[in-house]
Structures are given as structure tokens and as C-alpha cells.
Write a structure and sequence with these properties.
The structure holds 2 protein chains of 2 kinds. Chain A is mainly alpha-helical. In chain A, about 65% of the residues lie in helices and about 5% in strands. Chain A is built from 17 helices and 6 strands. The longest helix of chain A has 25 residues. Chain A is globular and about 70 Å long. Chain B is built from 15 helices and 4 strands. In chain B, strand 1 and strand 2 form a beta hairpin. The chains are: A mainly alpha, B mainly alpha.
Chain lengths: ~400, ~350
Amino acid sequence: MLGLNKKDTTLFWIVAAMSLLAPFILNPFPEGSSLAQMFNAGYPDLMQRFVIFGILVIGFNILFGLTGYLSFGHAAFLGIGSYSAVWMFKLVGMNVIPAILLAMIVSGVFALLIGYVSLRRSGIYFSILTLAIAQMCYNLAYSVLGNPASSYNLTNGETGLQLSLDDARIFGESVTADGALPVTNFFGLAMRSSYKMDVGGWLFTFNAGYYFSAIIMLISFYVSIRIFRSPFGMMLRAVKSNQQRMNYTGLNTRPYILAAFVISGIYAGLAGGLLSSMDPLAGAERMHWTASGEIVIMAILGGVGTLVGPVIGAGFNEYFKNILSKINDSVLHDWLAFMPDGIENLMVGFLHYFVGKGWHLTLGIMFMLVIIFLPGGLVEGGQRIAKKFGRKKKSDETSTTPAE
Amino acid sequence: MDAIILQILNGLDKGSAYALIALGLTLIFGTLGVVNFAHGALFMIGAFCAVTLKKILTLSYITEDPTQTDFLGKPLKVATPYVQSWFGESTGAALIDWAVPLAILFSIPIMIGIGFIMERGLIKHFYKRPHADQILVTFGLAIVLQELIKTFYGANPIPTPAPEVFRGSYDFGVILGFEANAIIYPYWRMVYFAFSAVIIGAVFAFLQFTTFGMVVRAGMADRETVGLLGINIDKRFTIMFGIAAAVAGLAGVMYAPINSPNYHMGMDFLVLSFVVVVVGGMGSLPGAVLAGFMLGILEAFASMNQIKAIIPGIDQIIIYLVAIIIILTRPRGLMGKKGVMEE
């Protein structure tokens, strides 16, 4: 279908079905139950983050997964995209399409410039250069360009760039009839509007913004499959396996890598634009280098160089971040109530450091374990398990885990 | 003129910290070929060694003093640190006052131990893996260390003052013939600079004048040949990793009075230290030191008001700009050698 081979088509449809049915899948427990509070993730804000970070990591994977160039400054493009989109909302109007387009264009231009500079070196140098440039962007956004007193206040510094009632909005209204800020919309369909469906005890929320982002995510996913299967993708893989040999054959690899860098920058800008479309507020902390690190973590968790890895990694990271930060001591006491009191208190005291505010620690440990034992990420883990089962039952050759 | 001297002095203390961290990074990189993203965390752990020693020294027991009363009229509770009751009041107070310098002794075994465990327990298994994996695993380790410190010490900076003697500032201008108060420089920063000069000198002397250092230098130049000569180079490189960790830790211990330690101070320094290493030339020890001081001083100059008036915000980006220009014009850095980490 659409130029995809059979395996990729199946993969694409699985991802499409998962993302379109997400409000059902992520809400497995009836509304109001204690399990629902903990494990249900089917509310719009979180679902939007799933797909938007999915886009971001899909883009990152085109660079890191195919060429092996580890960029440690990808969050800069996310931030640039967010700022551009909010500026579009401030100056032009609340339709998300122009905002997203501008976000993609601006971040693409930045990616071209940054890539041109940093791709002169490879390996560690490239990582450090991208890190330095992204940190420079962050500092600029945070201090100089964000100083409300100066005449070039592009980012509004610490407060973050947000809409205000006296913005121009040439093709829209500065203030709605009842004196509120207008909301972001897609030709009239407000991004935050949701349709709620009550089935038995379950409450499913269908959010316009989520479906908008999910469809864009599916398009990005499709494009990334096409890139992976194209001659261009083959070229990038060749760069990863042996760039020197490519150069000896008389081929200049740099334009190819630069193209990959720009494409992944545009993906990140698109994700930034979408983040701003869902909530028109952009802050400099989105560009901080720990944010770049988190992108890398998501990509590695899922599986670098695989097609679905990024989507899985982004979802996994966001979901566990959400759950872990919700667990507190009383929840732990509830769960461990079956143990003798002394052991229960000990366990809670120990686990206390890994949940709630300590979720960073858990994610850090998980990340290290994945790198040490499972360099291919969760996808490779799935493949290994599938292989084991495949060996036991020889009839079941086709593994459900997509290869590559 | 006085403004220029002041900025050079201001740059020296930050430059010393950059130089020490970059020196450790370069040692690890030159010997083991690993880019250690956890090096900033080592710097931070050093600073928290000072915090910990201070806490241990001020462990107190509480007694009630019947001669004094608090505002409710009850006998006043007086906390007496154990060290004061053990060593006498004045010696005990002096010990607490000198907690930061004492932490140097306290931190060296800890840092070397951490370095050993890191290298033998984790990094050893990553020599044959791609560079990206090495970067990522040390990055993960940095997150874990940082979060561990955060769970035990909280997220707020912990003020750790220098000994009483070194508080306050010295008026440099008077010696050099400027009017009073033109060049004022805190004592502790002078101490920091002198200390880092001693450490840097010691590391260089160790590499240059001892047999051990000679073998290590040979190993840096050609690991395989040294190994073929029957020398256990891996063991020596592990020791060098411990030394590099100790250098970063000492830089952190002494930095605690300048900047109250918090859990992300290491990460903040790490990015800049990488830039320093790249500017100095990957694998070049003198390059790292030179670039550290140079960039520290440049940063101080860029934060002068006269310069900020011409180019606003230059103080925030000067280091990165210099790094980009240097990498584009001299890809090997200031003092990088040909053939060392060209990739």
C-alpha cells in the first residue's frame, strides 16, 4: 500500500490502530476506581504528549538511527519550533496550520545552519558541538533574547512566551467576544475541545488536539518508513557502517548527512509547533540540554535504528514518568499491605526513593540497564523473546515484533 | 587598566575549575579513550564531600543550660558538637571552621574509590562498544549519581563557608598603585587558584618524572606496544581513572565555598568543560589547562558592562562562540596532536 511492502504496511496499520484507538486502550479501568487513578493514561494532555514526543523521537531516529551521528542538542529545535508557533499565534491568528508550518521552516533553517557547522566533525566532536550550540541557544533564549526590558525580547525568558490580550493577530481576533484569549483551532475546530463517551463505568475522552497530533504522527511515521526504505536511507546506513570507505569511493557523504540532520530538525520543530498548538506557551527549559538527553533516552529505550522503536520509547518514557510520579507512600502501603508490618515499612522506605519525586532516578537506572544489557532497546528485547518462543514452537515462525 | 586586571583575576577562579575538570576529562580520554559524561557528577560529589564532612563535624548532642532561658522561660537547649567535647572547645570550633580544607583529605580516598568502582564495574565493559554507547552509559550514570545526591541532600544549595581566615577580600589595587577599592578580590578565590595550580603541577610532575607516569604516557601514545612489552597497562589506566576522579573531586571540594553545592552543579560545569577540552585539543593535557584558563578569563571579560553594552548577552555565549570558531578553523583544537582522535 502506498509504496510500502507487506510487512511495513502491517506495521503501519498496527501503529495507526493503536494511536487512533488510544483513548480506549489507555483507559482499561473503569472511571473512579483506584486502579484508574493510577494506571489510566487516557486523558488528552498525556495522550498528546505520547504522539508529539513520538514525532520528535521518530525524527531523531532518522539522524541517530540511520547515520549513527549522536546529536546531543536536539531539544534546541523543539524549543525553536515552539517559539515560532507561539509567535504565529500572537501575530497572525489562532489557526494551527500556519503555526506548524512556520515552526517547521524556522527549525529547518536553524538545522541547516547548525548542521553545516557541526557536521564538519564526526563522532564525539559532533556530539559535543551540537551540545554546545544547543546550550548556546538555550542561554540566548533564557537571557538576552528573553529580557522583557530589551528591544529584542523574542522569548520572554523565564516566564516563557505566552499569548496576551493585546497581541495583533491580523487574521483573527485579539480578544474573543467575552474578553478571553482565543483558543488554538484547526479551521474552527478548537484543539482543546473533547467529546466524552460514557460506556458503563468507563469514560472515554476523544480530544480534537490528540487526533490532530496523532494523524500528523502517522504521516511522519509513514514518511520515516519511506525514508528508511529509500536509496537515500541506504546511503545513510552506509555512512553508519563505514564512512571512510564511502569517502574512498569518491562520494561526498556530507550532503546526505546534512539532509538527514535537517529532516530530523524539521521533525523536532514540528513536534515543538504541535506542543505549542496544544498549549500556547513556550519556555526556554524545553531547550535545556537535559531535555536533549531525554530525547536520546527515549530513542534508546525504544530501540535505535528500528522503525517503531521511537514510538514505543516515547510512549514508554512518558507513561512511566506519569505513573511513577503519581505513586506516593500511601499508595505503596496499600500495595504492600500483604507483607508483615516491619518488612512493609522497610520496603516502603526503600521504594520511596524511586517513586514520586524520585522518578528521575528510576528512569536513569532503567536507561543504564537498557544500554548495558539491551543496546537495541525494547524492540530488541521483544525480538529476543519472540525468538525464544519461535524456537520452542517451530510452526509459529512469524514474530509479532516487527523486525527493523 | 584596573578593570582589565580585575577581570583577569575574576576569570582565574572559574578558569581553574574548568582547567581541573578538563584535565581529568583529558586524562580519562587520553588513557582509556572514553568520553566521560559522568565527570561533572564527580565534581559535584567532591563538593558534597565537603558538605558531608561539615555535617559530620557538626553532629551535636543537646544539653539544657539552666543558667540561660529561652523566650518561653524554659532552660535553653544548647547544641554542642561532639568534636568540641572531644578535642576541647577551641580545637573543636577550629575543626568545624576548617571543614572545607579538611575535606580534601576526606575526599581523596572516597573519590579514588568511586573512580575505581566506576572503571572496573562499568566503563571497563564499554571499551569495545561504540563511542555513542560510552557517552550514553556515562550520561545515564551521571543522572543516577545526581538523583542519588538529590534524594539524600535535597534540591536546595547547601551553603558551605570557607574558614574564617579566608573570608573577606583583599585589596589588590593598593599594591599595584591604584586607588583603594579598585581591585578587590576574595581571599578564597586566591586560595582556589593556588590550589588548582598545585594540583595541575602535581599531575604533570607525576606523569613527567615518575616511572609510573612514563609508562602511562607511553600507553597513551601506543597502548598495544606497551602491552606487548609485558606491562599491565590496563591496571595503570585504572589507577589513572582514579586519579582523574580525585582531581575532579578536589576541584569540587574547594569550589564549595565559592558556589553553594547543589545537585546539578556538575552538569552545569560539564558542558563547559567539554567545550574546554575540545578547544584545548582532545587528548592534550597542556591544551586542556590552557584552554580552561583562557575561556574562564574570556568569560569574565565578556561579562564586563562596557562590553555587554556593545554586544548584549555576549557573556552567555562567548565560550560557545569561541569553541565553534576554533573547531572550524583548527579542527584539532589549540594543542591537539595529529592522529589523536581525528574522528
